Amino acid sequence: MIVFGRAAVLAITAVAACRAAAPPRAEIAVVDDAGDTVRLAAPARRVASLIPASTELLFAIGAGASVIGRTSYCDFPPAAQAVPNLGDGIKPSLEAVIAQRPDLVVLYNSGQNAAVAARLRGLGVAALRINTDQLSDVGRVARLLGTLTGRVQSGDSLTAAFDAALATATRTRVERRPKVLLLVWEQPPMTVGQGSFLSELVERAGGENLFADVAASSGVVSIEAVAARNPDLILTTADGPSAFAARPEWRVVPAVRERRFLRVNGSEFNRPSPRAPGAIQE
């Protein structure tokens, strides 16, 4: 028989009381852009980021070491390229994702990824579906990822710095705004409307999107429609001379005949990210 002294009994009682009084670890819960509640028992430490914008933001808030999977298009920051490449971000290989043992998978909010998210949840893996289409998504998603990775303060700080840089880069006093055709695909010709962050980049830089009246983020346009609106400039994200400029049907557009092209290069023009203020200034 073991007999405890009074001091030992008091110590044991105190420890038990502390354990009983200690609150349970708070669960992390957020609602994603698909309307699903994403729950984590603790901050995510192994994140498969299947959107280039979310990968960039995770590194920006200091959670890069937690990224254990990315897409083929996650090219920034350079350190992201050392992360295992899991292929495409739309309808990704579930086997490749699960092999990385993630506790959180970040997916683009599309109908094609709905089934993937459901299967991941069925396997006990948290799946977050988010929209990364506009500049307003940068700070919002940074805070969301900050919450899920235990970096709330970093997410808040990045958002504040981004908003300030965005305001500084935006040109508010412009005597004349040139009309810009945002040609994002050449055959068939595709442009972006007001639903795209690229349209906002041009507008904040002092230009006017030729098809700002198109509500959709992108759409096919006819060469006749482009000629009728007569753009001052044609913005392209292609390297070197664009192939469409040599096609005879495009000669009806004065900006093509006079080669008034505004060529930009870099993934900061392909996704909303903390680099947007620099893209506006360029």
Distance between the termini: 81 Å
How many beta-strand segments?
Answer: 12
Our estimate of the beta-strand percent is: 15-25%
Sheet with most strands: 6 strands, mixed
Return residue spans where pLDDT drops below 50 for at least 5 consecutive residues: 7-23
Structural class: alpha/beta
Q: How confident is the prediction overall: mean pLDDT?
A: 89
Count, helices: 10
What would you call the shape?
A: elongated
Question: What percentage of residues falls in helices of 4 or more residues?
Answer: 25-40%
Computed Rg: 25 Å
Element order: H for helix, E for strand: HEEEHEHEHEHHEEHEEHEHEH
Secondary structure blueprint with pairings:
Elements: H1 6-21, E1 28-31, E2 37-40, E3 47-49, H2 52-60, E4 67-69, H3 94-98, E5 104-108, H4 114-122, E6 126-130, H5 136-148, H6 152-169, E7 179-185, E8 190-191, H7 197-204, E9 208-209, E10 219-220, H8 223-229, E11 233-236, H9 254-257, E12 261-263, H10 276-281
Parallel strand pairs: 3-4, 3-5, 5-6, 7-9, 7-11, 11-12
Antiparallel strand pairs: 1-2, 7-8, 8-10
Polypeptide structure, described:
By secondary structure, this protein is of the alpha/beta class. The protein is 34% helix and 16% strand. Strand 3 (47-49), helix 2 and strand 4 form a beta-alpha-beta unit. Helix 2 (52-60) packs across helix 5 (136-148) and helix 5 runs antiparallel to helix 6 (152-169). It is elongated and about 60 Å long. Residues 7-23 have low confidence and may be disordered.
